[in-house]
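The data are set out underneath:

___
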Amino acid sequence: MKRILLLLTFVVLLSSCSNMFYDYRDAQSNDIIKLPHDYRLFSSDREMNYVSKKQDNSPTVIEPDITQIGWNKGYIVYKRFEDEDKSQWGIFNMEDGTNLTYPSETDLNYRLEELKLDSIKLSDVKDILLEQEK
């Protein structure tokens, strides 16, 4: 009888732990784009897009208002609004966490060619999210 009770207790404990590896941050919204190295592009109301690690309390690595994004296994390339009239372009290195920003798309493209990353193309965040919903 004790063995049966012990076995039932063990089964209940195991079944309650089945969601231990489930990441609720990926399930909070359909407006999440999974990126390499556990980074995520989080979107709220399709306007305030930012990049952070998926873990709780992780700092934002690319500030909000990202309008375009592209990536490969090691880098995120993005365009974001700083002000109503001013945009910022950037390259985020997912390996070492460096974030290089540029005042113009021309400067960004020059740096992408230098780093041999010109194969990364920017796409509108809204379009990526819409495609993901299909």
Summary: Confidence is low (pLDDT under 50) at residues 18-27. The helical segments are 2-16, 24-27, 105-114, 125-133. Residues 2-16 form the longest helix (15 residues). The longest strand covers residues 75-81.
